[in-house]
Amino acid sequence: MRRMFIAGNWKMHTDRVSAVALAESLADQSTSLGHVDLAICPPFVYLDAVARAIAGSELAVGAQNMYHEDSGAYTGEVSAAMLLDVGCKYVILGHSERRHLLGETDEMVNRKLLAAHRAGLAPIVCVGELLEQREAGQTLEVIRTQFEGSLAGLSDEQMARTVIAYEPVWAIGTGKVATPDQAQEVHADLRKIIAGRYNEQLAEKVVIQYGGSVKPDNAAELLGRPDIDGALVGGAALKAESFLGIVAGAKA
Ligand code: 13P
Description:
Helix 1 runs parallel beside helix 2. It contains twelve helices and eight strands.
């Protein structure tokens, strides 16, 4: 049985004071969430302060990116070991903003993914199609290509520990949410792809989040679909009330 997993991607928002305040407020209000795993992913520079602020709570901390090398002369980069050192459990990899604004390729995402696993971080790997790709009927092909490139070379155990976030690019930050049917269809396709590459039992274990304009008023319907195991939340994760409103929509 898969557990629900809701994560907040704070992107390049907040400052030190508001990041800690938001984290503390979430930690205070998110108790006894037996069936839901919760994580918040602040900007790198606030990870340490946020992790300290919520230590001992039910919230986990994740980063929004990392570099694939363990250490060395890589100016401006941050390794998996550094993220673990400041209290991270998760790392988001291959977010569409990194793919489309910063030129991240499937090959780069794959190197990061393998490094995250080697270090013991739990990765959340994002995949998703552009609007023109959906309109051209290419959604499944795009998802399959991203899966095969970004998630290449994982052992069974690593695959089972990898969270996938389906984030249609046209739904991110636009207020245009995928319908529960559209999201469920891609999630079921992803599970079929995993079953084909590995096996059915393993595919049933993989947590697949939906991301893209998830809000308190659409969360329950999305999260009620059989293959939607949680959400990766952007804008609505920046206020405790709306983030917890989404958590409330997670099926028991
Ligand atoms: P929004 O929830 O703001 O659409 O962002 C989704 C997202 O990109 C999460 O990673």
